[in-house]
Amino acid sequence: MRRLWRRCCDERGIALVIALSIMALLLVGGVFLLRMSSIEGDIAYNTVWAEGSFFAADAAINVAVDTIAPNVSNCAGASTPIGNGYSYQVLNTPPAPGCFAGTQQEAGYSLGSGTGYNPAGFVFYTFSFTGSGTGPRSAQRTIDAQATYGPIAQ
Question: Which of 127, 62, 69 lies closest to 88, judged by CA?
């Protein structure tokens, strides 16, 4: 019985068990931290791509603003590559079939020098368009914009 008791109380090998347990915990912690840093990197890349897509959509709006005129029936264009996997496209916006959305009449003062008050009113042209930007890994942003041009005397 004493022999059995001494064998149970013998602490030889316990250091190996403790060392292996600590190494297993460190391995699990290292894998967890490595996975977390990988996820953080993915989040950072996705943020950069989404922001680049937004700027591509903003470029589409700027292109549409540069082309507005009352006789423009359709301002939609093909997808235009910018570089580094980004591209933009000007889209048609409902309800208008193109960019020109209609006119709006208001009485008031002209911005022109010496024209004064016009009771008949002025016409303002309204344009509506949508810019779409795409980037790497299917990152996409869309911007809707409306511009008013005027006053134009009647």
Answer: 62
